[in-house]
Design brief:
Elements (H helix, E strand, L loop, with lengths): L2 H8 L13 H9 L3 E2 L1 E5 L6 E5 L3 E5 L2 E8 L4 H8 L1 E6 L5 H7 L16 E3 L5 E3 L4 E13 L2 E13 L5 E4 L2 E4 L2
Antiparallel strand pairs: 1-11, 2-3, 2-6, 4-5, 5-10, 6-9, 7-8, 9-10, 11-12
Length: 179
């Protein structure tokens, strides 16, 4: 069923919503209402390191241990993940807002410059991991599925490191600390 038809069926009893368009801006507005856990995806080595802040990292399955992340194909992160075949998922907390902003591209930092101001270690796969992350998950790429503007990356989990604290959430354009 296409989105337009579902929208009409979904709103059959609420005529006020019938006129809501199903365009990209409307979808973004709807998704901004959904809070998501903040993770920093890291990949590469040395001067080829890069990464991105995402709310799209999630478990695909726990047995076998597989993670899923959606990366924009035009980002600097996807080509590095593809080249090295690894990625780290760094689940961050309230103390990591500045580093999350750096990896989100705020301030114009790119590549290895995004790693400034934090302590990093190298995972089994070779991916960089944030030393004081709430949790860090080391993955190798099992499969990459290109769809539209993004790549759905499925990773085999090699190692997990649990830190302390609670994860940071992102909703409506702002970070929120979990109490």
């Amino acid at each position: 069923m296409n989105a337009h038809v579902e929208n009409i069926l979904f709103n059959a009893e609420n005529t006020a919503l019938l006129n809501q368009p199903t365009d990209a801006d409307s979808l973004k507005a709807a998704l901004r209402t959904l809070g998501g856990g903040v993770s920093i995806i890291t990949a590469g080595e040395g001067e080829t390191r890069t990464g991105a802040t995402v709310t799209s990292a999630t478990a695909l399955s726990v047995e076998p241990a597989r993670m899923l992340v959606s990366l924009n194909r035009s980002s600097s992160t996807w080509p590095v993940v593809e080249r090295y075949g690894h990625f780290g998922i760094n689940i961050v907390g309230a103390a990591h807002e500045e580093i999350a902003n750096q990896f989100a591209g705020r301030g114009g930092l790119r590549g290895p410059a995004r790693y400034r101001g934090a302590e990093w270690t190298t995972a089994v796969s070779g991916a960089p991991l944030l030393v004081d992350a709430v949790a860090a998950i080391d993955c190798v790429v099992e499969e990459a599925i290109e769809r539209h503007s993004h790549v759905i990356v499925i990773g085999t989990v090699l190692a997990i490191r649990l830190g302390t604290g609670r994860s940071l959430l992102y909703q409506d354009g702002r970070y929120h600390a979990v109490a």
